[in-house]
Write a structure and sequence with these properties.
The protein is 62% helix and 0% strand. It is built from 17 helices and no strands.
Length: 389
């Protein structure tokens, strides 16, 4: 493979007939092999991992949530069918069969994954050719996360429109990967929610081809409607056998991906822990208030419901759109957790707050860093004056 790439590489150099495709060739080459380019001057950290290898760890970490999400899509579908009403996920598996359930969900989610990558890579390649830049690696993560945060029956054309909008106006206009101020995957979901709310909210969107008499209410949806008694058990929410977005239901699958990224050093523990701390403390405050049904849900249950855990692990820790300063990361994560629970509780029309909380704090991240750096400068100048005196 290396010899073949070296043989055709001269055709893409400047002045050659295929130079206009140089960015595309570079994207394929650097995906297959670590670039052999090294720095010539200045102080740099040298490592055996580059940006593509770093971001592919995030893709690998999302695989457990994706695989379980496919299985859960099949589980929820069969539980909604007339002949299986009254069963639970434990009894439905031996009745229908594990592989039949899994492949139903697999065939539902596969088109979403394919379309996400086709649209995402196309937009990246087009902008790379226009700018004469390398293809940005962030598209691999974005296109992996999008299928995990949308309903399984989302119309493909809506996904194409939303993803194209998010990539162009959420990332490319700012200069591509590393320059965007908001998370493109979350911006895709936000566009879908506000442009096509009927396909992103309500009970029926979370279950594919469900019977009209069957409710596909998510745990948050049931609580927001004041029906806490119909909420699934904590064990079911930990495992993920509940209606919801493809990759957001299983806390255990999300935790497995979290451990992979912590072990490899891909995500910031400051942000991750502060998000959970902010959410837990905010939920505790509302537990003391107890003005509505959502406030009565125990604080620890809030952390495993809805998209809180997935947002904390895969979205809030995005190194590009998050804060960069050490103390700024703590404030950033803590405010995301607080706002996520606050929006969830006070907005009955949309009982899920992580998407809006993270997008809002993406915008606030530069301001937080600016304040932190300013305070550090003032503190050091003050210390310098004391020593001078």
């Amino acid at each position: 493979m290396r010899k073949f790439l070296d043989k055709i590489k001269p055709n893409f150099e400047e002045g050659k007939k295929l130079h206009f495709l140089q960015s595309s060739f570079d994207a394929v080459e650097t995906l297959l092999f670590v670039p052999n380019i090294t720095t010539k001057k200045g102080s740099h950290v040298r490592d055996g991992i580059d940006l593509k290898r770093l971001l592919i760890v995030v893709v690998i970490a999302a695989v457990p949530s994706l695989l379980f999400g496919m299985f859960n899509v099949g589980i929820q579908h069969y539980l909604s069918q007339t002949e299986y009403i009254g069963n639970d996920w434990k009894s439905i598996i031996p009745i229908v069969g594990f592989w039949q359930i899994f492949f139903y969900g697999f065939l539902k989610i596969l088109p979403i994954i394919i379309v996400s990558y086709v649209v995402g890579i196309t937009v990246e390649v087009v902008f790379a050719q226009i700018r004469k830049h390398e293809v940005s690696e962030g598209v691999f993560v974005t296109c992996m996360l999008i299928p995990l945060i949308v309903p399984p029956d989302i119309p493909i054309w809506m996904l194409v429109v939303s993803l194209t909008f998010a990539l162009i106006f959420g990332k490319e206009v700012f200069g591509g990967t590393g320059m965007n101020i908001v998370n493109p995957a979350l911006l895709t979901r936000a566009f879908l929610f506000f442009a096509f709310p009927a396909f992103m909210s309500g009970d029926k969107v979370w279950i594919t081809q469900s019977q009209d008499a069957i409710s596909g209410a998510t745990p948050l949806g049931s609580a927001a409607a004041g029906d806490i008694s119909s909420m699934p058990s904590i064990m079911d929410m930990l495992l993920g056998f509940v209606p919801g977005s493809v990759g957001e239901t299983s806390f255990i699958a999300i935790a497995l991906g979290m451990l992979i990224m912590i072990f490899t050093g891909v995500i910031s523990l400051r942000i991750l822990l502060s998000v959970f701390a902010g959410g837990y403390l905010m939920a505790l405050v509302f537990n003391l208030w107890g003005a509505n049904e959502l406030m009565l849900i125990p604080a620890h249950v809030h952390l495993i419901m809805g998209g809180f855990a997935f947002g904390a692990v895969f979205m809030a820790t995005d190194p590009v759109t998050a804060t960069q300063t050490a103390s700024g990361k703590i404030f950033y994560g803590f405010l995301i957790g607080m706002l996520g629970i606050m929006i969830r509780i006070f907005n009955p029309a949309y009982p899920e707050g992580m998407m809006l909380a993270i997008l809002f704090m993406n915008i606030m991240a530069p301001l937080i860093d600016h304040v932190v750096v300013g305070r550090n400068i003032k503190r050091r100048l003050k210390r310098l004056k004391i020593k001078t005196n």
